[in-house]
Amino acid sequence: MRNFYHEDPNLAFLLKEYLDLDFFQWAEEELMEYGELCANEIDERARHTDQEGQPRLVKYDKMGNDISFVWRNEGYLKTVKQTYDRGIVGYIHKEIPGLGKKGNYIYSFAQGYLLSQTEPGFYCPVTLTMATAYLLDHYANEKLKNKFLPHVLATGDIELFEGATFLTERQGGSDVGANETRAVKEGDHYRLTGEKYFASNAGACGVAMVLARIDDQIPGTKGLSLFLVPWKKEDGSNNNLTIRRLKDKLGVKAVPSAEVLLEGSKAFLVGEATKGFSYMAEALNLSRLCNAIASVGIMQRAYLEAKSYAYERSAFKQKLKDFPMIRESLVNMKVKQEVEMSAIFSSIALFDRVASGQSVSKEDQALNRLLIALVKKESAEQAVHFSHEAIEMHGGNGYIEDFVTPRLLRDAQVLTVWEGTGNILGLEVLRLIQKYEIHHLFFAKMKKELDDLPEALSEEAKKVITAIQSAHVRINQICQMEHAMQTYHCKRITKWLTDIFECTIALKDAASGERKHAIAEIFIEQALRKDPYSISELTLNHYELIIESTPVYTQLQRN
């Protein structure tokens, strides 16, 4: 029987690096079970939800009352229970029974990685629930925490309240400062009135975190406050929330995304009224990491499908895997996927320290924002590319809905849009450079990590150091340009920083052994290649070491 955890030894490699031994041993047993569940039972349900069981809006009850109820199929609801009960959200914030200590984001994201290989649409509500838990845990008063947080962290011990974050409005989109939703105080709570135009997990959530404006006289993001809005009142009726319609999306069909009207909805202020956008920006960084995990999960699934097809399918009297061009494609995919995943988990480890208060320096906080922006942008774009490569490997079959490859492509495309497009992320990197001169800190950190590598890796390290020096000069030149031209170059800067970060990560992994060394050698050659017409046979030379040293799952094994 197929198992996504077993098929990816690289995940265990990373978990051993970031988890204590006792935590790893417990996590591996859990992830082995969940990896099998994701690869089989949850995968079948995901296909059903995508093709036949999509969420539906039940607008009115039999008496004509607007109930704005979102129906979800029974299989999807079973996946909800199986996933949340395993602590994908809860064990970040509370003790794990049997282990005697609280979990962390590393373990949660390992679960999310397995889930995203089969159902990235459902990982969106999980992401929103993680963000809701983060905001409540960090900024809600004790009364709100005691009432709502246990439900958001439910692991089968109490009724689950999935979360949601309602940010964007029709007139602004990514320009959140243009939001118009109003909040009027009424006793110990507020009443919210307005419209949220792209509200995911609408109707399925128990609570939503919503930005609204208490004082219209304070413009932009500074005038936004954060509120907790229960979807239902104490008596179980709707909390004056109306769904106009569900969005008809290209992919991620499992998650209900809607246009939501708040018509005097009861809400509770979270934290200080002047810091709502700041709080939500912190949660956005968490959501961007979730987006990156979903992306690298799709990358892995696309690779697995391409590899299994190449090992099973014959053409011109030989297996596809025996053609050099196919071998090159598989090696390139696996090399990029493993380096990307390692870079993301490195970013998660820093985020975990910052979120828990272990790293509170301004430098760490700024570097945290930078690395998240880099891995989010790169992984999302690569998820689309990998899905295309998997379809290419299948040929005509890859375009047919009998195979998972069309869904991978449809689901991947939204990841370049959610939580910030490439343009938005490029501007984020530019802001960090302007405000913190983050590129100086980043390059110094990368150089130190390269200097600390074993002598055997010195030649590859020199190539990356040369790239750092060149990028540093170019970015300093761009910083002297007028602002409009800086924005013109911001995505280019982002790509330079990403390449250097991932090359450094690849070399740090290379110290672990021959296979990772080969991966780093190939990755650096491709990332820093000066001559686009150069000829190399590195991918073919290392094919057996990189590809055939990991489990092979073929279509024939499914029968």
Please characterize this protein's 3D structure.
This protein is of the alpha+beta class. Helices cover 56% and strands 13% of the residues. It has 19 helices and 13 strands. Strands 5, 6, 7, 8, 9, 10 and 11 form a seven-stranded mixed sheet that branches. A hairpin with a 5-residue loop joins strand 1 and strand 2. Helix 2 (21-39) packs parallel to helix 6, helix 11 (362-394) packs antiparallel against helix 12 (405-415) and helix 13 packs across helix 16. The longest helix has 37 residues, at 276-312. It is globular.
Q: Can you lay out the helices and strands and say which pair or pack?
A:
Blueprint: H1 9-18, H2 21-39, H3 41-51, E1 56-60, E2 66-71, H4 74-84, H5 90-93, E3 95-96, E4 101-102, H6 105-116, H7 120-139, H8 142-152, E5 165-166, E6 182-186, E7 189-200, E8 207-213, E9 224-230, E10 241-246, E11 257-269, H9 276-312, E12 314-315, E13 318-319, H10 324-355, H11 362-394, H12 405-415, H13 422-436, H14 438-451, H15 458-479, H16 483-510, H17 514-527, H18 538-541, H19 543-546
Parallel strand pairs: 5-8
Antiparallel strand pairs: 1-2, 3-4, 6-7, 7-11, 8-9, 9-11, 10-11, 12-13
